[in-house]
Protein: Rhoptry protein ROP9
Organism: Toxoplasma gondii p89
Amino acid sequence: MTHPNPLQTRFSRSASLVSRMPLVRLFFTIAAPLLFSPSPFPFLPLKTHCLAIQLGKPQGSPPASQKEAIRDTGGSHQKGEPSDSSSEPKPQGTVAETPGAASAAAAEVGRPSRSSAGPGKKKRGPSLFTEETMGPSKRHPCLKTLAAAVEHFQAQHLTGRDAAKAFVDAIQECGIQVVASDYDRTAISVHSGGSARRDDLSVLGALTPDFKLLGEELTRRNIPIYFVTFSDKGENRGDRIAAGPLVEATLKASNANFEAQGVFGYYPPFYSEPEDYAPLGLSAPMPTDKSFHIQQVSKASGVPEDKILLLDDDRANCVNFCRSGGAAIHVSGHEGFDFGAVRVVVKPSLIMQ
């Protein structure tokens, strides 16, 4: 015995039911909803129905309730202005933004802020080199005058003895009584590395011509010259010489017509422990600049530090001495002292002025 298929049985029953149903009832059951429903798909689920309506609506158009609210308040958005269609409540204490306020706020963006100093004054951030960022500093009263004098004779392209005379004239007018000079790449055109062999003429014979002329002019005017160097006196060993012996051998090998009044050679990293710096009268590790060296020059000469001129190719040493109220000249060019390549440090900045 064969059993009838349930689907076939159900279909046959539906077909017989449809055939018995009057045509009017069939019209109202199937055709009427399709003709008179606002939705093109009345038989779809509710979620699908809503999605179909949203897909057919233009983007950015507000709901009907919001359109009525805008119409009731009399507000209308200008063409091209965004409308706030958010229905979320605004936090307390805030004011609803109007189109005029929005445009005013947009105009403020990018407008320079104005300080209380007056209209048109831009608010400036803190400078890089101030007492707040680098600590307090003193200023030598003659730095700008000295800088102007040096720039003046450089503009005249003076060389040789004429440049030496103009240079010493300028420092004397500023009350300089002692010159303290670095050794490597300042007095000489190379770097010795802190020491040299006794017969190494590439170092001992490297005194620059302009430094020779400077030393002779200073000697003629009774202005002593001291050497302040990181070539440490403790490096004198075997056939290598450093500090005082190195400077003296250099002046002799270069046929200099002047003498060094004194040489202070200390390499600060060698004096970082109490047993090393305490014998020098220090209560802390030696500073990494030339401040200790210049203090020794001041003690030896009896001249205050503000009457001492520092010559150095290391700008940091010049800046630190300038901060303490001293006068310093930076020897640039990396080839030793040259009257055409010196700059007076007029403010405590590592940036070239």
The radius of gyration is 45 Å. The beta strands are 178-181, 196-197, 225-229, 240-241, 262-265, 308-312, 327-331, 342-344. The chain has a mean pLDDT of 78. The chain has two domains: 7-57, 138-344.
